[in-house]
Amino acid sequence: MTTPTPTIRPYTLNAAGIELSALLALPDHRTTPRSTVLAIHGRGMRAAYWNAFIPLATAAGHAVLAVDRPGYGHSAHQLPDGQSLPDQAETLHAALKEHAAQHDIGAGVLLLGHSDGGKVALHTAATDGATPLLGLDASGVGHTYNPEALHFPSTLGAGATRLNWGPLHLYPPGTFRASRTLLAPTPPRESAETLRWPAHTRNSPPASAYPSASPSPNTKPGGTWHPPPSTR
Description:
Elements (H helix, E strand, L loop, with lengths): L7 E8 L2 E8 L10 E5 L13 H6 L3 E5 L17 H18 L6 E6 L1 H10 L7 E7 L18 H8 L9 H5 L8 H15 L9 E2 L19
Parallel strand pairs: 3-4, 3-5, 5-6, 6-7
Antiparallel strand pairs: 1-2, 2-4
Helix pairs in contact: 2-3
């Protein structure tokens, strides 16, 4: 059975004065979506990272709002250094509030985050907002980093690619060449905060109201999480 191709359109959100670029796709076969998936991309990527996921979600009746995180896309000129994890969560809450005022979000919002976007999803789920959150799924983010990765200056360089993606021959030919069109500069604040993430998770008690699922090999699925103390 062929998955219908949804209409994915560029979309702009005013998140309390911060202009966020995004992609919006709605399910075709129902007027009210079952829910809205807020898709949060990872380090050095853009909202289009989720293009392959979007048809699967809309075919199941969900709307998808894939955002360019603060410091990426339209907000890069306004936030050239990016934002801290707590500030990104606050900005996304403001964006969701505006979106929900203009669109039917169904039963609520499901947070979907990959890599550094998974960190933002965890912070967003564990802080209060005006929009009802149903749950979250974070992948590609662990409590600690692989020690072999610590000396790589870039997640795309040499052995770092192998650690992040595994054996490249397992992917269809051209996958990584094509994916380079999704790359974007990483904001400096995000790069600096990445190094502090393991300390944040070690010093933070697990306590959050939202269940999480994370297939990352360095994390345990289920359970709860609370955002660590962090400077902004």
